[in-house]
Structures are given as structure tokens and as C-alpha cells.
Amino acid sequence: MGIIITDSSISQYERKPSGYILLDDKEVAATLQCCHCGGHFVSIKGSGKKRGFCMCCMRVTCGAAGCDHCVPFDRRLELYEKGLISNLATGR
User: Which of 30, 35, 37, 79 is nearest to 53 (CA)?
Assistant: First the structure.
């Protein structure tokens, strides 16, 4: 189950966010986008979640097991369109 964000006090400040979560036209959190799966996530202070950083892409990853190996999302999308993988998120 995900965390419900009601105010920006628990989310971490992001210098270069990839997106925002808005509630009632008020920005409550900034999101980052994983360079491998394309998923967005909120960095939460003290959550203990392990995130990664890809040294090839020089961008943040979401920390999922499928995102440990460097396969950029654009390449994963090409493989999906060719029918070589069946799931964009896991790359399998």
C-alpha cells in the first residue's frame, strides 16, 4: 500500500524534479522519474527506501530489481514494440 501525501512536509526537496503531485491545485510533492522503467516516485525523508543511481545514464533509478541493469526506458520501449519483451516495467 502506498503512502498518502497530504502535505509537502514529508516529501524531500528535489532540485530538479521530473513532475509534481497536485491536490486541489496545491503542489504537495515533487517526483523523480526512473531512467530505466519510467516510473515516478516521491522521495520521502527517512523512509529507508533504497534508490539507485545509474552511472551510465547519470540519472536516478527507482530501486526496483528490474531497474538494476542499465536498459534505458527508450530502449526498453523499442524492445516491447518489436515483441521481444512482454512487460515494460520488468523488461521480461
Answer: 35
d(CA 3, CA 91): 26
| Kind of pairing between the strands at 19-23 and 26-33 | antiparallel
Q: Can you tell me the distance from the alpha carbon of 16 to that of 30, in angstroms, rounded to the nearest whole number?
A: 9
* Number of domains comprising the chain: 1
83/11 Cα distance (integer angstroms): 38
Summarised one tens digit per residue, pLDDT across range 37-71 is: 889 999 887 888 888 999 999 999 998 888 888 88
> Which residues span the domain enclosing 54?
1-92
Nearest Cα residue to 64 out of 40, 46, 37:
37
pTM of the model: 0.72
